[in-house]
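Discussion board: Methods & Data

I've been asked by a reviewer to show the raw model output for two of the constructs in my manuscript, not just the figures. I'm not sure how much to include, so I'm pasting the format here to get opinions. Each protein appears as its amino acid sequence followed by a line of discrete structure tokens. Is this the kind of thing reviewers expect to see in a supplement, or should I convert it first? Here is construct A:
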Amino acid sequence: MEQEDWPTVFVLSNVSPAQFHRLSNSVRAATRGNDAKHWVVISTDQPRDTWQLPAELESQWIDLDDSALYSVKDLATYLFELLDPPSRGTLLRLGRGRWADIKGAVADLAGDLRHPEAVEAFVAELRRAGTQETVLDIDALVATALDQRQTVGNWFTHELTPVEQISAIAFAFFHNLEENVAFAAMDFLMQGAWKERDAGRSFVDYGDLVNFRRYVSLNSDESVGSVIFCRSEEARRAILTAGWRSHRRRIIAALPDLVRLALASARQDGVNRNILTSPADRVRLRETIGETLGELWMLSPEVVELHLLELIASGKDFAHVVVATALRRVRRERGLDGPLAMLGGWRSRSDLLALLQRLSGSATRDTMPELMGTAIVSILARLALEEPTDRMDPRLEKLVLDYASARQKTVLQRFCRVAVPTLVQRHTGQMIGLIDRFFEEFGGKRAVNEMFCEGFGAGLGWAITHYRPNLMEQIRTWIQAAAAGSGKGFDPALVGRREQLAAVGCHALGWLRTGDRQTRAVDELDNMTRSAMELLTGVLKVERHPFVREAAIQSVNRLARFGYASVQGELKNTILAMTTKESEVFVDFMVDLHCRQRSQQPDGDTFIKIGESEPGYWCPIWYSKEPENTPVSDTLFRWANDKSNPEVSKFASVAVLQLRRVIERSQESSRTKLLEERRQHQAELARIAERVAPELDRQRTRLTFIQRLAVSLAVLGQPDLKTAVTGILGAVLPLPEHEAREVIARYRREGEQQGSHTADGKQLLDTAVAAGKAYRLSQTLGFYITLAVFGVAAAIGYLTWR
């Protein structure tokens, strides 16, 4: 949207509330204010209650019916185009004189059919009716065309072959998945349980989509690529329902593979290595599997329940989310009765706990209630998302309060860190109304209160970013009321209601900035962040209780990490409000934040790892320049000259010294080492460039003076043999004498054999004879010349002696 200069209408189809909240900043910037130049049209199949829209967007919601989308004239034209001659005849026959001609029939029926999908379904039913002898009523055909479940069922049963029906079921299993992920998941089924039932059907491919295009298609999505997509949730459900009637055993056989696929999605092996390349792919695959299990649960709860328990038995958080997604789907379509009845059985039936023990492989049943409890807590949070805002069903509310009183540590952790934030964000007013009951349940136990206050505060922070009215004022009221009682005596080991409310308020302010959940305009969010930092500074100035101060410090850290540009102006006052110990700890935070900001600097010639915390930060460095300052280091150098308070410059100096100790010394050392390695490498390249290539050791016959003399004597009168004899002599001289004579003799025999009838044979014989002479002469000359040398030496010696 930001890159498009011309006024443009953007159409976003099948958008979920979560997707919209991630996009809302761009949407608001493009459609609001003086610079607005675009229009954005969004469609969704999610009910209005799940969107939690602010008032300014609530007024833009339009509930459409089919009559507002398509004109009767356009539908009549479309119907006329689809009717072939046989279908037109069938239509007039079934009309029994109701219309004078086909144009009258089309004009009359178009208004009843209301939308193109019904027109297509009506034509399909009409063609099928033309092959049947039974008397059909035209109004019954129209009613069937308007009932998508029935038309999809008829299409599945009557128009698809058995092999195509299996492919359609596979596509419905993995609806709304990116194409590569969807096909890989289908291959997993085809190579698994389904392979044993149909060895000839090993995979599903794009060609299988051709006959499914009426209800299953490949839709383009710029954010993830092409997506396998059923036309609607109703169409998907109808395919699975029809498949359940004719391929029930095959679907049941696929359930263990769906569970294995969900559990394997967290590993980097098998189907995941090249397909699930991002966390988002894994999350979406698990979400789709959960929705599919939910659809199948509505067909047969008792069949699916075992596999839901298998996911719970794994003990994996993400597997529990798959179960929660399945039951959330059931809640959306069938209400709460079914999911709550199942949860009740899981909580109370000893046989199910025994089954869970067998599935988990645990040696004792004592831990099974705790395992089941953690799963149910995750399920409660997902079920509550389907409830109208602040109107959570009383039965769910009772379960929430029951699990707040849980005694198992892991159940309480899951409740506070997973369920509470979700419940508070969705049902803010209702949960605030219950907050005193939670506080009473937790009492003064510090550990539980820490988890609960942070979880509740996180939910409030998310709710504020989703435009919950008056919520900031509510938090401000809690903090101000707590500040009024901060001077009273207290036991630091105990946490009372004043401290609980103050801590919740502080955590809520920190969760205004969390990286990826912002839905407000940037300027608005920056202003809120600055106000939040001012409130937290006020808390640190007056608050004495360590429980509240720790909550405030955590939120200061969070705001600084995710919104540093917004809070750096107030940060100096915040530091002055800290205690000595808090200030020392905050130095370490500033150093870590500096490392994080360094790692986000662009480009770089290479990277080095810095930071004391694991896994550390990979930061760019440059050969030609020093790294630029980060916002944190700029702030610290500016504070070094601060004239308002010596504590500010003291804090800056301590932080800069820590930066030197922890980061810059090792950074400079690493850079110096890299520069030296680069210098040596470049010098080596220069040396290589200056080298002269060595001469090749080419073949060359080398003979001594005596050997060359022997050759010359041997070829006297035959100079044309000299070259060949030189070569032969060079080859045989290094050999033992018997082998040298053997080679020459072999040449001589061959020459004698050929010499009688070829010129080459005569020449070979002459060469062999000359080579033999040269060989003997080299041996003889060598002996006599050596003897002569010794004789001359002896004579000279004798004369010298005389």
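Construct B, same format:
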Amino acid sequence: MNLPMLYEAAVPFASRLPAAVAGHADRGIRLRFRRRWLLLAVTLIAALAECVSVPGALLGAAGLWLLFGAPIVLMYGIANAVVSTRNGRAILAVGGAVLGDILAALLTNTLLPWAGIGAPLERIPLAWASVFLILALTAAAPAPGRLRWRLAVPVQGLGPVLWLGSVCVILSIAGPIRLNNGLSGKVAMAALVALALLLVVLFVRRGQHSTTVTCVGLFFVAVSLLLLTSLRGWYITGHDVQREYEVFQLAYQPGRWQIAAFRDAYNACMSITVLPVSIVRLTGISGLYVFKVVIPLLFAVAPVGLYRAVRHGAPQTIALLSAIYFVAFPAYFTDMAFLARQEIAFLLLACVLLVLADSGRPLRARQTAATVLLVGIVLSHYSTTYVLLGVIGTAYALGVGWRLAARRRGGFGKAFQRPVLLTWWMIAIAAIAAVLWTGPATHTGGQAEATTKAAVLELLGKRSDSGSSDTSYSIFGGKQVTEAQRLKNYATQTIQQTAQARADSDYLPLSEVDKYPVTSVDQADLPLTPFGRLLERAGVNVTGINSLVRLSFARLLQVLLLIGLVLAVVARKPVFRATSDQILLSVGAVVLIGVLTVLPQLSVDYGVLRAFQQGLFFFAPFIAAASVSIFRWTGRRATTFAFAISVGLFLDLSGFVPTLLGGYPAQLHLANEGQYFDIYYLHPEERSGIAWLRQQAPEADRESVQSEIQTDRYTFGRVQTLLTGRTYNDIYPTLIGAKTYVFLGFTTVQKGEATLSYRGDLVTYRYPLGLLDVTKDKVYASEGAEVYR
């Protein structure tokens, strides 16, 4: 496939279509097709730009048009069949464009090798794949209406929202940059204040703002919070995103995605393989900033989609509070920026709910569109798929029971409708797609099978183990284990696993290891600030209050959720009238979170906090409604009190209040210290140490000496995109190899601490450097990295 051949095929097609249309349509239709041909002409120019050498800015513009511009414009028209509102269509168009890009790249990757093209994910094939996608969307999209040069939606209050939102984004970019340069987090703190102010504006002016203006404001809030975290570090920073970026490179470097290159569930996520490869190839944006900026920008549409979905059946206040609770939940701004595959899956999930919530379009069309989006989630992220199938499966089963009960009593009553949104075939198609994708297509369902087996054994009482400490936030409870006990259990497990190899002298002898016991280390709190010391002198235990607020917030959300569900069923005049489907989906989400909490293996493999974040898509409006209902005795002030609580929690959970007062562990987006900084932030000294090590290890290989590189789990996570050869991500004393290199990262060198993950929890411990000094030689040393041999 080359440029002349594609050009020769495209020109005759382009010349025949207008004539055919002209023969069967009046002048008005011809004018509308000319406007569509303007879009196609720009698309052709963009595709040609991708095939020749053009400046970076032009390449970026061409790629963005092919991937997002033209598809979003066309998807906006297609979305009219399933969504009745303009802003809803815009949100769905973004999700549809992302799914279209994934499918186009996946088909290109699958089909072109059959034609002898060994690198289908290069720029030219991907450019023309986008062209064919745009042609297909053009054929499916309705004829565009007459262009109007004025906005067709109310814009009262848009100016202040745009201005304040822009300030928030600028501060959210400047804050991480300052921190990355070793400066203070004052600008990041200012960003949080500006975000709180923007929320106040959205609430106070909610009566004057159209839903479009509120959507714009919420997008600024959502993207600003994500950028505060995603832009930390000059390199890939975070937990899962390290492995995601490595998987992306496996597809990017050879120009082809192959599951055989790394048969792992990560590599089966098209959201972190073919999608970012397409963006990098066509726009010229580096992979680093695709993960740090582009994907968070796409994910920021999800909270807006939640707001728009809730707004279909609830007052403006409830919809706004639902979105605030979603972005204020700690997992949103501390973890989601490090989970690119889940960010894309959540965007598609928001689109599913948006389509199902809009009763202004035919039900069957909405169900079909939702099913297509569910298949997109299957391709994007495995865990989101499993949790979602559990939620909708439970909701459907409850709905069947509800129908049977209603049939016996002669109806659903005046307050409720018959559940109609979820059908068996929607769930069946999504489930079959998940089985086929993780089974015959990629053979990556091993982890899911192992987790299911362990959960069943736990349910039957044949296996007992500790779960994640996240379960402590749940009112369902959960077995709690101290860090010291987790460390002891981990040591016992590793000794058992290495017994035979240790007998063969592959590991250090236990007689030597036992001389250097390890102890767990608690997270250090920030020192009290002048404000914190002032409160302490007034008799306020700042440290205790900070911890209490965090725990109380988690419990408060769960209590409000239960109150909201109960009121939705029994209240005569609820704050908003929930449909039967909303209630069933929310109950399904609650049931699934309860199962995750009481079955330890599930809480380890899919954290409770992430599950709750996903659950907020379904039950956030019930939490919002309950927060208003408990203040109904105050009359018209009820919504104001509910909003004040949500913004107060936002300022505390985002880290603003704890940083302002001190007495709580530092957070990555506000400081150059704290647990996440210690274990996820890559330092220049570590890069230099790895560069030296890469030069030394191959020489040892040539001498046929065991030369595996060992480093602790989180230093490994920071540098895994730099390491080559055989590496092990654990330097716990019982796992030190007798003939391996041992790489110590910045935190271990500077603080003498290392961190491991056991049963879903981070455990930091004092590292016994004396063991390495006695059993190995130090062959490299700097202020932030050391290597032993």
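Answer (T.O., handling editor elsewhere):
This is acceptable in a supplement if you add a one-line summary per construct. For B, something like: The beta strands are 709-711, 727-728, 741-744, 753-758, 761-766, 778-781, 786-788.
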